[in-house]
Amino acid sequence: MAARDHQYIHDNVQSAVKDYFRPEFLNRIDETVVFRPLDDDNILEIIAAAGTSYTGTARN
User: How far apart are the first and last CA of the chain?
Assistant: First the structure.
């Protein structure tokens, strides 16, 4: 995902959060984090780090 795509998503999420929650609640939040989606390689790395017992299940 390109940096500008992530920025676009981040801006849209921030806008949606501001539209949904009341200012009184938002004033209690210091920071919000928008994560990039995991791709297949990321998921396989997580599975490998968690242990080899999950490898067979992921391939099926």
Answer: 27
Segments making up each domain of the chain, as ranges: 1-50
Block residue for tokens 């009184």: 24
Q: What is the CA radius of gyration of the chain?
A: 17
Residue type, 30: D
Average pLDDT of the segment spanning 12-32: 94
- pLDDT score for 40: 93
Q: Whole-model pTM?
A: 0.56
Q: For residue 52, count other CB atoms closer than 10 A to its CB.
A: 8
Q: For the stretch 15-37, what's the b/e string if a residue is b when 16 or more beta carbons lie within 10 angstroms of its beta carbon?
A: eeeeeeeeeeeeeeeeeeeeeee
